[in-house]
Design brief:
The chain has a five-stranded parallel β-sheet, sandwiched between helices. The protein has helices spanning 13-23, 35-44, 61-71, 87-94, 107-138, 147-159, 177-186, 208-213, 231-234, 250-262, 288-293, 299-305, 322-337, 346-354, 360-374, 382-385, 415-429, 434-440, 445-459, and strands at residues 5-9, 28-32, 49-53, 76-81, 99-102, 167-170, 195-199, 214-215, 228-229, 239-243, 264-265, 274-275, 279-284, 308-311, 343-344, 379-380. It has four domains: 5-129, Response regulator (Rossmann fold, 3-Layer(aba) Sandwich), CATH 3.40.50.2300; 140-313, P-loop containing nucleotide triphosphate hydrolases (Rossmann fold, 3-Layer(aba) Sandwich); 316-396, Orthogonal Bundle (Helicase, Ruva Protein, domain 3); 414-460. Helices cover 46% and strands 13% of the residues.
Length: 460
């Protein structure tokens, strides 16, 4: 079930109570007596809907509406007025209000009005839920809690909203650049369109242009009689991911640049100019700056591809994420191969954390699949993964505490129970608001969501 949040802004305490009681239980409700306090809350945690009184003491409802739309254009606003002159209320519709209601408010009419307004964003919320579920299930590079990956996730959230702005993804081999590109696509307005991939290093240089832009019949020896659509055309209204873009020839680079700048191209052997909208996301593990200096890569193409740059951290720089990612692969390959494992032994987790992951996520994925195939269970051992002899387990933590944090009791503690307790406490204090609960625990929103989901999965 999709949860909606509603802010009630009214200086009349009785009105706030009446509206709050009418909506409580169906929605997440917060009330405010002034426009200023509501605007501060919207900055940190935008709701889905605001019920906004026109006659407020610190700011007119009309001015508050303008500020809300400036802060968060997607927030819906229903104006509430006690005046019999509805001209002001109607004028607010031109400023972006979704509806208006006259006081005194009939509770049944309120319920209908709120449901009608929220229906405008129901599809958007459903899409967001589908996108989040897809990413959790299919994008292992997003599994984790380290600051490094949280920063990438939050940046991807922002850049994905653009329809056709090019993105360049940089990172070592095996860090999951294609998965990041996939995440950008599935978080974007293009998510219903195709997501196609071209490995530029795997296609002969004399064929790369026809792969990208297609060709007309008889364009060259061996061409299909009917011609062929290129990937740029096949990915129309979607995303084309160019992996190893640094391997493109200078000639292909020039034609790609023309398409990026003008949205136009010609098929090989064709004379008809074609126009299409396809978002291009590219990636490389090469040093493009050095390639530009040596004139192996066009500077103007680099600037066009890198309108937005996403740098993916190496797995060695996000060690807190290694075990969660490994568990993701454990579940994936257990299902694939019909095996059942309870997890990794403590010794194996220590090896995983201490290993030098030169192959990054790809290497980790391959080792876990190997362990699933050869392991006997119930837990995977270092020998199952082939780690024994090439990595050393981490040393046990120092019992001394230099940061003023309570030391671990000699008898140990139930970390899962402790984590669950504080997550529930934070949610209680934040009245169910996950963003504020995350702030109380000094963690990012995504990290909080990940931990909470993990607890829910254990309870299920």
């Amino acid at each position: 079930m999709i949860a909606y949040s509603i802010y009630i802004v009214d200086d009349d305490a009785d009105m706030r109570e009446v509206l709050g009681l009418a909506l409580e239980g169906k929605y997440q409700v917060r009330t405010f007596s002034t426009a200023g306090s509501a605007l501060e809350a919207i900055k940190d945690d935008p709701p889905d809907l605001v019920l906004l009184d026109i006659g407020l003491p610190d700011m007119s409802g009309v001015d508050a509406l303008r500020q809300i739309k400036k802060l968060s254009p997607d927030v819906l606003v229903v104006m509430v007025t006690a005046s019999t002159d509805i001209n002001t209320a109607i004028s607010t519709m031109k400023l972006g209000a979704s509806d208006y209601m006259m006081k005194p408010i009939n509770v049944d009419a309120l319920d209908v009005s709120v449901r009608n307004v929220l229906d405008k964003i129901r599809l958007r919320k459903e899409v967001q839920v589908l996108q989040e579920n897809y990413l959790k299930e299919n994008i292992p590079c997003f599994v984790g809690e380290s600051n490094a990956i949280q920063d990438v996730m939050q940046f991807v959230d922002k850049v994905a909203k653009a329809v056709d702005t090019p993105v360049l993804i940089l990172g070592e081999t095996g860090t999951g650049k294609e998965l990041i590109a996939s995440a950008i696509h599935y978080k974007s307005p293009n998510f219903n369109g195709p997501f196609l991939t071209l490995n530029c290093s795997a296609i002969p240089r004399d064929l790369i242009e026809s792969e990208l832009f297609g060709y007309e019949k008889g364009a060259f020896t061996g061409a299909k009689a009917a011609g062929k659509k290129g990937l740029v055309e096949q990915a129309a209204e979607g995303t084309l991911f160019l992996d190893e873009v640094g391997d493109l020839s200078l000639e292909a680079q020039a034609k790609l640049l023309r398409f990026l700048e003008e949205g136009e191209y010609y098929r090989v052997g064709g004379t008809k100019k074609l126009r299409i909208r396809t978002r291009v996301v590219s990636a490389t593990n090469k040093d493009l700056d050095t390639m530009i200096e040596k004139e192996f890569f066009r500077r103007d193409l680099y600037y066009r591809l890198a309108v937005i740059k996403v740098e993916v951290p190496a797995l060695n720089k996000r060690r807190d994420d290694i075990v969660p990612i490994a568990r993701h692969f454990l579940s994936e390959f257990s299902n694939k191969h019909g095996k059942s494992f309870s997890g990794f032994s403590p010794e194996t987790e220590a090896y995983l954390k201490n290993h030098n992951w030169q192959g990054n996520i790809r290497e980790l994925r391959n080792l876990v699949e190997r362990g699933i195939l050869v392991g006997q269970g119930p837990e995977l051992s270092p020998q199952d993964l082939g780690l024994e002899g090439i990595a050393e387990p981490l040393a046990p933590p120092n019992a001394e505490n230099e940061d003023g944090i309570p030391a671990l009791p000699d008898e140990g503690l139930d970390l899962q129970a402790l984590e669950e307790h504080y997550i529930r406490e934070a949610l209680k204090k934040a009245e169910g608001n996950e963003t504020r609960a995350a702030k109380l625990l000094r963690m990012s929103y995504y990290s909080f969501r990940y931990r909470r989901k993990k607890l829910k999965d254990l309870e299920a």
